[in-house]
Amino acid sequence: MKRFHGIRAFGLITLLGALLSMLTLGACSFKQPGLEHSRPAGGPEFWIGDTGPTGPRFSGPQQYPFICTTLNEGLGQPLIDNQAGIGNAVFRETLFGPWIYGEPVGYSRWCSIRTRVDYYYFSLEKDEFLPLDNRGRVPGDVERINIDGRDVDFVVSVERGTINRFLYSIAMLAPDEESLAAPQTLDNSAWNKRLVYKFRGGVGIGRWQGESRLDREQALHYQSLKRGYAVAFSSGTSSATHYNMELARETAEMVKQHFVATYGAPEFTIGVGGSGGAIQQYLLAQNSPALLDGSIPQLSYPDMVTQIGYVADCDLLERYFDEQFQAAPDSKWGDWLFRARIAGLSANTVARTSSEYDNPYAPPRGASTCSRSWRGHVQVVMNPDYSHPAYQRALKLFRYPAAVRENIIWTHWNDLANIYPQDENGYGETTWDNVGVQYGLRALRDGTLGVDEFLDLNACVGGWKQPNEMRLGDYPWNPDADPARPDPWDAANMNLNPDCKRGKPAPRSQASQAAIAAAIESGQVFRGDIEIPVIDLRWYLDPALDIHHSLGSFSARARMIAAKGHADNQVIWVAGCERIDPFTLEKSCPYDPTGDALDVMAQWLSRGRPDDAIDRCLDYEGKVLHAGPDVLDGILGDGAPGACTRLFPVHSSARMAAGEDITGDSFKCALKAVDKALNDASYGHIRFNTQQRQRLRQIFPHGVCDYPAP
Prior knowledge:
The protein contains 19 helices and 26 strands. It is of the alpha/beta class. Among the domains are: about 1-265 and about 385-410, no CATH class; about 270-300 and about 535-590 and about 630-665, no CATH class. The strands form eight sheets. Strands 6-5-9-10-12-11-13-14-19-20-23-24 form a twelve-stranded mixed β-sheet, with helices on both faces. α2 (about 220-225) links the parallel β11 (about 195-200) and β12. α13 (about 450-460) runs parallel beside α19.
């Protein structure tokens, strides 16, 4: 069976198109990649001209195939390390770049390059870092910064190479000319002896080297470098590359070991990064306590594998909502705010619904976080046939055999094949489960949803097929499908039943207990037991229906409290935006709290916890609106909302709307018999008649979720 696979990030990410265009047009590189007859050593000590260690150390067998992206990153073709056809083909260099139409001159299994150092300066005119080709001639628009009372040019050195097959970089202030003969000859006098490890977000399912992201928000992190910090970065600690937290831990440890061996041990190391970069910080603080001394997660979630629970609920619910709306356009199913009572996440009634996944079946005005932001992620994580065509083109270009290209199983569960168990056909067993989940329970209890509506919803919502049952589906998931037959929810891969309202409920999805255990034991799940200081930052993006809704910070806090009895080492800062257009959902959030958080964290780590290390909310200019131990009350408990909670209310999820608490760490709920639920307080004041009781038993033959139970 032929398979197609791909990668999609939170937000917008260019996959391998740039790589392909560069290979097609050529790149001016004249040095023939050398043959490395042996695998590079595994130690942290290496310098310019050397190759970094390829790993692995403890993360298990490395993936094959694995696409090298060094050429796309302006670093030339990877080094040849074998003639046996293992890995990416390497081509003869010409005046116009690699001759991709000829026979390979060798292959690169490790994607290694020789370590190099380049210089960049911050251009006030361009508001970004630009290459500095001549150290003796710094352009006049360079920003001047003050370091220890000395005004200097904002010039940085950037060491780049490969560690553990991924692209890494180390950036440091270098305002004065220096010798690169050895690390000992570097002029590191502008370095404040502190390190920021910059993590990057996104959603990737592995099998590629990733992007080095040499920009002011990532590898050249402006806020950190301006303060004198060194900045370490790796494409292997970017969740746009993969979501294997064991591999991320291994890579981060190897990068930091190299930093210490080359530049010396920093006074302390602070993690910085958003979205998936925040997830990595929470998990690495748990899984590798010595790696980071402090953490500044931005736009956080506690982890990915438990988060996918309510994310995968989104399209199941949206399909049902849209079908009810199509059947009765004037019904409540056309009201996005009513839908939000069931799906949990934020919604509005005026937003334009057009996106990259146009949905002709939804109400024409209004949208939800599910419809605007989470659509497409289930397919990336769970569907082995869903892909970006560039991935297959790259595999073919790099001469991977057809049998290899056509038989990759492209899911998160198979990306972590060394962690998750496999079924008899090689498919990774999944952790996603919705058996017993009573969607809309909260809306039923508060009278928003009638009993029969509640029963119809739960009878028809269904579940997701197991990966071995999935197919590529219809438009837009399948580029070859007929656009006149759109399936915006990917219903072709759902467990459904057209007679669901007539006594034949759609089947739910069953998780693998072994897969759940593997996820927890391998550190893919944030359990909350961390001790380092954490300043959790976010912009309040719920009104923008943004993927980075504010629930994540508080789920992390709830898990910390559950694990330790407190979350005293975590503070949450929420910043407002200047403008969020309710129609286009475009936003302007000019204040970046990261620099202020770095300053507070530095005090916390060097002199003890400062007064500013406390929960707060801020306006779009950075003015503190409210701060104190009670400003975020009413989110984790039943008390009155605090001052910040009233300004920036936190929405829930479909699982919370079905009875789960804010920790959100249940893969598979404990079940209780329907008759027990009918006779305890599960449904509040709502009463079921005899027929409705029988139908409830039919929909939930194994029982309903008992979330308070372990």
